Amino acid sequence: MTDLAKRVHLILRGSGSTVATAESLTGGRLAVALTDTPGASETFLGGVVTYATELKASILRVDQQVIDEHGVVSPQCAKAMASGVRALTGATFGLSTTGVAGPSEQEGKPPGTVFVGIAGPGLLEVVALELSGKRQQVQERTCLEALAAFEEVLRRESTPLG
């Protein structure tokens, strides 16, 4: 995961961009992965762990209607979390994780149901994941998949069309 985080850092640094994280099921692991890279302070502004639903609403400004209609384990919540942390920190990009690490289901969704949100200038995307394994494996794999998806977005966004 360190190589992946380093590549993300180098792409961000090359474009003068920054990122902030909003985490739920990963509990801060995504921020750790991003800050394990030397020089991360140039591109990583910070992150919030909003494990409780109430904090998703109060800190990240996830609309209560999104929570009521779709739940916190949803693509809509992942997008709102990514947008919320971007607005909160002033980062170029917001990267969020929400889902069910296990061992039991949440909101009727099985363990391994995960959504990664990516918000940036003119960009709001979500990646849906169905992961298997024990709780810690789901958390670690979520971080890996989030970084891989973010790297893909960064590469795509930095490549001019035409």
What is the topological layout?
Elements lengths: L1 H14 L3 E5 L5 H7 L8 E6 L3 H6 L5 H7 L4 H15 L3 E7 L13 E8 L2 E8 L4 H24 L4
Parallel strand pairs: 1-2, 1-3
Antiparallel strand pairs: 3-4, 4-5
Structure description:
By secondary structure, the chain is of the alpha/beta class. It has a single domain, classed as Alpha-Beta Complex (Maf protein), CATH 3.90.950.20. 45% of the residues lie in helices and 21% in strands. The protein has six helices and five strands. Strands 2-1-3-4-5 form a five-stranded mixed beta sheet, with helices on both faces. The model has no long low-confidence stretch (mean pLDDT 95).
Can you tell me the CATH topology? Maf protein
N-to-C series of helices and strands: HEHEHHHEEEH
> In CATH's first tier, which class applies?
Alpha Beta
- Which runs of at least 5 residues are low in confidence (pLDDT < 50)? none
Shape: globular
Total helix count?
6
Radius of gyration: 15 Å
What's the end-to-end separation, in Å? 32 Å
Structure described in brief:
The protein is an alpha/beta fold.
Which descriptors would you attach to this protein?
alpha/beta, Maf protein, 162 residues, five-stranded mixed sheet
